[in-house]
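Researcher: Structure for this, please.
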Amino acid sequence: MRLVIARCAVDYTGRLNAHLPLATRLLVHKGDGSLLVHSDGGSYKPLNWMSPPCSLSPEVPGEEEAGAGVIEVWRVTHKKTGDALRVQIYEIIHDSQHELGIDPGLQKDGVEADLQRLLAEQVDLISEGATLVRREYPTAIGPVDLMVRDAHGAAIAVEVKRRGDIDGVEQLTRYLELLGRDPHLAPVTGVFAAQEIKPQARVLAEDRGIRCVVLDYEGMKGIESGIPRLF
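Model: Predicted structure, token format:
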């Protein structure tokens, strides 16, 4: 992982266009190729980013850019969509690289772990006639909670959350991009399963072709709650 604190301006072009004017920011270039642009406040989320699969290429600043003080330009391009993040660097204040090694992954809390276990035992809630392939199905960026095959043998990747938000949808999207490259699995569809799914997360999931399933935790444990298991 490379951490750079720099005075920079950032432009995103592709499905949408966005501009970050000149300011001091943290640039995080991760081992998976992704680039995240952070400020020092406002949110834990990056101001802008490019998720994998993508590649970073340095560019020589143009004459006008160099005259304005740009010393370095980074272009990060998404390999599938062609979307691009272009970073104009005016000054590098800090630059360091670190080997983080393999991360063991997030340890789920009791309810979330129970939801995953119960859903693995009740995969018909995902698709009637489905069978479980494996829990914690491994990928290069972490394990998918459940890998399932439907009654026709098609692969379904399932991400299980207690509360489903946009970050969970983004996580499942990254898994689907990787799994879709495996000829033994492709095409892979996604299911986002949670006790509660926020409206913004549902909209994003449906826009990406991911099906949402709301889980009745009490009902799955065999306790009648009066709430339908699926919505």
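Researcher: Any notable elements?
Model: Helices lie at 63-67, 110-121, 166-179, 199-207, 217-220. The two ends are 41 Å apart (CA to CA).
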